[in-house]
Amino acid sequence: MMTDGLGRRISYLRISVTDRCDLRCRYCMAEKMQFLPRNEVLSLEEIALLADMFVARGIRRIRLTGGEPLVRRDIGDLVRRIGRHVGSGLDELTLTTNGTRLSDHADMLTGAGVRRINVSLDTRDPERFAHITRGGRIAQVLDGLDAARAAGLAVKINMVALKGVNDDEILPMLHWCDAQGFSLTLIETMPLGETGEDRTDHYLPLTQVAAMIDAHHALTPLPDRTGGPARYHAVDGLRARLGLITPLTRNFCADCNRIRMTCEGKIFMCLGHEDHVDFKAALRSGGVGAVEPLVDRALRLKPAAHDFRIGTDLAPATRRHMSVTGG
Ligand SMILES: Nc1nc2c(ncn2[C@@H]2O[C@H](COP(=O)(O)OP(=O)(O)OP(=O)(O)O)[C@@H](O)[C@H]2O)c(=O)[nH]1
Ligand SMILES: C[S@@+](CC[C@H](N)C(=O)[O-])C[C@H]1O[C@@H](n2cnc3c(N)ncnc32)[C@H](O)[C@@H]1O
Ligand code: SF4
Ligand code: SF4
């Protein structure tokens, strides 16, 4: 079992399997991104070995993310490999995806033991989707969602709430999710990495959004926890649950159980801090045995909380984009 310096039990590992993506969401990435050269990126076997080590150390949930996890070649091999732990070491293997390639992978995911996925969709309007993602085609995501349903995957839609961009779509999105049998999680935009845009312009506190929804459908907090940061609510008159991820208006750091591994083998102990431990050199020179002592060093680095601020002149909390650590 892993415990950090503040006594928080670490049981959830998020693995960013690639820093690449086929979209360029305006709140996440800059238009022109420089991605890692391939030799800097861990092989699937190296990622799997580190995942095995973390499961042996007490990780109970793994979420694969990115960049876009489904653009990594042979991703199916990795999902199947880590999926072997589901039901023994792991309670759950999940994935967060933009959905563009889900049609090709939904059956593979269920076959590998994945039961639920999170799909990011900030708008249902094709032109707005193309604008937010800088060129994405929404039809691919909608096809992917159909494939996920057909494969029996439970789907949660992630929507970053953005003032003046998609705030008029929040209630319609909730109704649509309800009709589709999905749940919806709203997310406050976080200041990570320069994107070429000012996030303050579009920051929308979810306290305001929850009050707006509550005026139409009373919200009742639920005790449900998934291991992630969302706080869930029952929505009067609808089956869909509503999750709220509020790093800025109500942070959830005191209960944090999460660590993150990037595709180049860096372990970040907090989404909002630069401190990390690099496993790659040790892994490549001495195998997993050489990495074990570094885990303890990493655990001591975990901060009490992030120090994200929005609406100030300060630069983003980290220069790293969300896509590097996978959210
Ligand atoms: N500040 C902060 N944000 C997080 C953390 N974990 C996830 N998020 C954010 O939550 C959003 C949704 O993340 P997902 O990948 O869908 O995962 P999740 O909602 O934690 O997953 P489940 O609750 O297991 O469904 C993303 O914008 C993440 O950046 C965290 O530890 N701290
Ligand atoms: C970085 S993406 C990686 C996985 C996949 N490409 C996707 O979009 O689902 C994971 C989640 O982070 C969210 N995200 C990205 N940048 C963000 C930011 N600056 N603030 C809040 N959430 C962000 C995305 O909307 C997505 O739901
Ligand atoms: S949010 Fe996901 S889909 Fe959008 S640019 Fe970032 S990594 Fe790509
Ligand atoms: S911001 Fe850092 S400490 Fe807070 S919940 Fe996220 S990872 Fe944990």
Automatic annotation (TrEMBL):
Keywords: 4Fe-4S, GTP-binding, Iron, Iron-sulfur, Lyase, Metal-binding, Molybdenum cofactor biosynthesis, Nucleotide-binding, S-adenosyl-L-methionine. It comes from the Bacteria. Monomer and homodimer. GO terms for biological process: Mo-molybdopterin cofactor biosynthetic process. [4Fe-4S] cluster 1 binds at residues 21, 25, 28. Binds 2 [4Fe-4S] clusters. Binds 1 [4Fe-4S] cluster coordinated with 3 cysteines and an exchangeable S-adenosyl-L-methionine and 1 [4Fe-4S] cluster coordinated with 3 cysteines and the GTP-derived substrate. Residues 5-222 form the Radical SAM core domain. NCBIfam families: moaA (TIGR02666). The lineage of its organism: Bacteria, Pseudomonadati, Pseudomonadota, Alphaproteobacteria, Sphingomonadales. GTP binds at residues 14, 63, 96, 156, 258-260. It catalyses: GTP + AH2 + S-adenosyl-L-methionine = (8S)-3',8-cyclo-7,8-dihydroguanosine 5'-triphosphate + 5'-deoxyadenosine + L-methionine + A + H(+). This is GTP 3',8-cyclase. Its EC number is 4.1.99.22. Catalyzes the cyclization of GTP to (8S)-3',8-cyclo-7,8-dihydroguanosine 5'-triphosphate. Pathway: Cofactor biosynthesis; molybdopterin biosynthesis. PANTHER family: MOLYBDENUM COFACTOR BIOSYNTHESIS PROTEIN 1, MOLYBDOPTERIN COFACTOR SYNTHESIS PROTEIN A. Belongs to the radical SAM superfamily. MoaA family. S-adenosyl-L-methionine binds at residues 27, 67, 120, 190.
